């Protein structure tokens, strides 16, 4: 299973973090090797159990992904032997025990990107495609994915189970897609990458405010997707999504403080922003504007470009931000977009105007809705109402860092709010 030299021993939580970061890479390779999603997940699950037992005691191997891959491959082969599968399937799997994978062919050269395209097969409904890929690529729990989709956990569990069953019964192959498949599945792939990045930007689980590993993985995969330009004509939405991710990532050094706490846009030290990523993102946005075929990702990137163009929050062109949200609402109407527009509207026309818009939205299960209401109510001097809205936001967000930030905002109101039941 590799070299006996290991890194310093880590606690179980730290080991779990390492495993989670490697999950997508390992499961994608196992699915390519064995051609069976459920087998790959089950085998990796067994390997993870062993890792959680051994690594806190013995230390993490120098190559955690290689260790997990080797261990899971052996577990998968043991399973195939026990199940006495067809001779040809067993023989095929047995030949693949070498840890060095064959050189992939076709336009997609990355296991994880190929996995996304496989899960985005037209035979699967779009919500199922996105949910299944988030589960496999990022190792997200069903609860985390359900939170991202604003649906009950049981609904999401059924969706993922049905997607796996559809792949098995329809015999959807895990294979390298051809250029036509890439073009046909592009919209679904972009949706997956967008949601992977969102999970990295603000994590639905774990103790940290974000998951930088997922955010960086989404950026890497989007760059890989963009490299297919010669085959799919580099649609501008690919550039738009990459620009959106880069401009969001550029703010991370100021968005998370040294203690791991969230820092809002208006309070960020903009001197800490990554100017290299900003320059690259702005160049992509300008290229999108020249092409004149706006789409949702391009517009969101343009909004980020306006924010990152202002070296002080007081210099933000809020009129342009609201206008861009108006355009986004026309292309992709949703209450979440309307909520984000209202945040900008508050800076342009005042909190009373924005609150009237927010109160018309049906997002009571969505923590940012409560947090936005709380901030607007605070600005209007309605501290009691603001305190109750902060408490509702704390109760509906799964992220501990976000809960702590919301509690700190609520506690500034006084009136005993810091002693309430919602305090983390």
TrEMBL record:
InterPro entries: DUF6596, RNA_pol_sigma-70_dom, RNA_pol_sigma70_r2, RNA_pol_sigma70_r4_t2, RNA_pol_sigma_r2, RNA_pol_sigma_r3/r4-like, TPR-like_helical_dom_sf, WH-like_DNA-bd_sf. One of its GO terms (molecular function) is DNA binding. Pfam families: DUF6596 (PF20239), Sigma70_r2 (PF04542), Sigma70_r4_2 (PF08281). Residues 185-287 form the DUF6596 domain. The keyword Ribosomal protein does not apply. One of its GO terms (biological process) is DNA-templated transcription initiation. Keywords: Sigma factor, Transcription, Transcription regulation. Residues 116-167 form the RNA polymerase sigma factor 70 region 4 type domain. It comes from the Bacteria. Residues 20-84 form the RNA polymerase sigma-70 region domain. Belongs to the sigma-70 factor family. ECF subfamily. This is RNA polymerase subunit sigma-24.
